Structures are given as structure tokens and as C-alpha cells.
TrEMBL record:
The lineage of its organism: Eukaryota, Metazoa, Chordata, Craniata, Vertebrata. This is NEO1 protein. The gene is Neo1_1. Belongs to the immunoglobulin superfamily. DCC family. Pfam families: Ig_2. It comes from the Eukaryota. One of its GO terms (biological process) is cell-cell adhesion. Residues 9-104 form the Ig-like domain. Gene3D superfamilies: Immunoglobulins. InterPro entries: Ig-like_dom, Ig-like_dom_sf, Ig-like_fold, Ig_sub, Ig_sub2. Keywords: Disulfide bond, Immunoglobulin domain, Repeat.
Length: 108
């Protein structure tokens, strides 16, 4: 029996970039990962996983990118501003984490 393990490529094709969003507009944080087995993509904001299932404003796009509809930003409520990371997981291989991208919101 061979002890040589085959190397399965698993890497990011696209990682999110710092972005300046406008309050009330929509914004996309790009992410796409490549592997033979389609990776499960999740997003972290400020180190915490986003629960996108029950989120009516934020959604995961088919390629793994994060769409934020209607960026919210007020004096006391800044839920979208912060640091985002894309996390890709393939069960048999493990997890890779993208660079950290900063989302800044500009006032109108």
C-alpha cells in the first residue's frame, strides 16, 4: 500500500478587499474558493460567524461572496461596518481563512 498522499488543491480564487460602502446602498464582499469538493463558505465579521440563514439583509451568493442589502449606519447603530473574513471548509481537508477586509461606511 502506498503511503503517498495525493495533494488536493484547495485555495481561494478571490478574497475580499477593503471596501467603502454608502449607507443605504448594497455592497458585495467577494470570495470564491476552489476545490474538487465544493467548499462550504461562511463569513466572519469581527471574528464572529454571521448567521446568514435567518438574516434578511445579508446573503451568501452562489460563488461564496457576501451580499449586504441596504447598508445600515447611524450614530448609534453600525452593524455592517467592521472586519470581514471568508472561511472555506472542506470536511476531509480542513478550513482556510481569507485575508481580513475592512468595510467602512460613508455617510450620504
Amino acid at each position: 500500500e502506498s503511503l503517498v498522499r495525493t495533494f488536493t488543491p484547495f485555495y481561494f480564487l478571490v478574497e475580499p478587499l477593503d471596501v467603502l460602502a454608502v449607507r443605504g446602498a448594497s455592497v458585495i464582499m467577494n470570495c470564491s474558493a476552489h476545490c474538487e469538493t465544493p467548499p462550504k463558505i461562511e463569513w466572519k465579521k469581527d471574528g464572529t460567524f454571521l448567521n446568514l440563514v435567518s438574516d434578511d439583509r445579508r446573503q451568501l451568493l452562489p460563488d461564496g461572496s457576501l451580499l449586504i442589502n441596504s447598508v445600515v449606519h447611524s450614530k448609534h447603530n453600525k452593524p455592517d461596518e467592521g472586519y470581514y473574513q471568508c472561511v472555506a471548509t472542506v470536511d476531509s481537508l480542513g478550513t482556510i481563512v481569507s485575508r481580513t477586509a475592512k468595510l467602512t461606511v460613508a455617510g450620504k
